[in-house]
C-alpha cells in the first residue's frame, strides 16, 4: 500500500507541444495554457510562440507553436484524457491527418521515459515519433532546455537541431 501512495504523489515533468493554425492562433494557444492551468497542472516554463508553414500541405494556414514544461501529479492516462478534453473544449474536431485545426496538444516527453501505449483508439508514442525532425518542436524545446536529451535516441537537442535541413532551419520564425 505504501508503494502505491508514493506513486500517486509523484510529480511528473512533462513537455507539451501546442499548435494552432485556425482562427486567432495566438489566442487559441493562450486559451490552451489557461485551461491546462485549471486542471491540477502547474506550468513551470513556456516558450515563445513560433510560426511555421503548415506541413505537409503548405497551402493550409501557417501554424503557431509553443512548448510548455509542466509539473503534474496526474498519471499519463489522466493527463492524456485532460488534454483531449481541452482540445475538444476549444473546438477541435476529428479530421483528416495534418488538416488545419484550432488546437493540437502533443505529449513530447513524460519524465524522460519511452512509452508505447494504446489508450482507447489512440496509440500514444512518447517521445513523439517525429519530434526530432520538427523545427516547431525543437526550437521552442531548446529555448526551455538547452541540455534536453531525446530519451530514445539518446541524443542532445543541439545535435538534433544541427540535423535539420537548411529549409527547416530557415522556415521557423518567432511569431509577431
Question: How is the topology of this model organized?
Answer:
Blueprint: H1 2-8, E1 12-20, H2 25-37, E2 41-46, E3 50-52, E4 63-72, H3 76-89, E5 104-110, E6 115-119, E7 122-126, H4 135-144, E8 149-150, E9 155-156, H5 157-162, H6 166-170, E10 172-174
Antiparallel strand pairs: 1-4, 1-5, 2-4, 3-4, 3-10, 6-7, 8-9
What labels describe this entry?
two-stranded antiparallel sheet, Alpha-Beta Plaits, six-stranded antiparallel β-sheet, 176 residues
Poorly predicted ranges (pLDDT <50, ≥5 residues)? none
- How many helices? The count is 6
Roughly how much helix do the residues carry, as a percent range?
25-40%
Roughly how many Å apart are the termini? 52 Å
CATH topology-level name: Alpha-Beta Plaits
| Mean of all residue-level pLDDT scores | 89
The biggest sheet amounts to: 6 strands, antiparallel
**CATH architecture annotation:** 2-Layer Sandwich
Strand content: 25-35%
Tell me the total number of β-strands.
10
User: What is the string of SSEs from the N terminus onward?
Assistant: HEHEEEHEEEHEEHHE
Question: How many domain units?
Answer: 1
Please report the first level of CATH classification, the CATH class.
Answer: Alpha Beta
Structural features, described:
- With 176 residues, the chain is of the alpha+beta class.
- The chain has one domain: 2-Layer Sandwich (Alpha-Beta Plaits), CATH 3.30.70.
- It has helices at 2-8, 25-37, 76-89, 135-144, 157-162, 166-170, and strands spanning 12-20, 41-46, 50-52, 63-72, 104-110, 115-119, 122-126, 149-150, 155-156, 172-174.
- The strands form three sheets. Strands 1, 2, 3, 4, 5 and 10 form a six-stranded antiparallel beta sheet that branches. Strands 6-7 form a two-stranded antiparallel sheet.
- The mean pLDDT is 89.
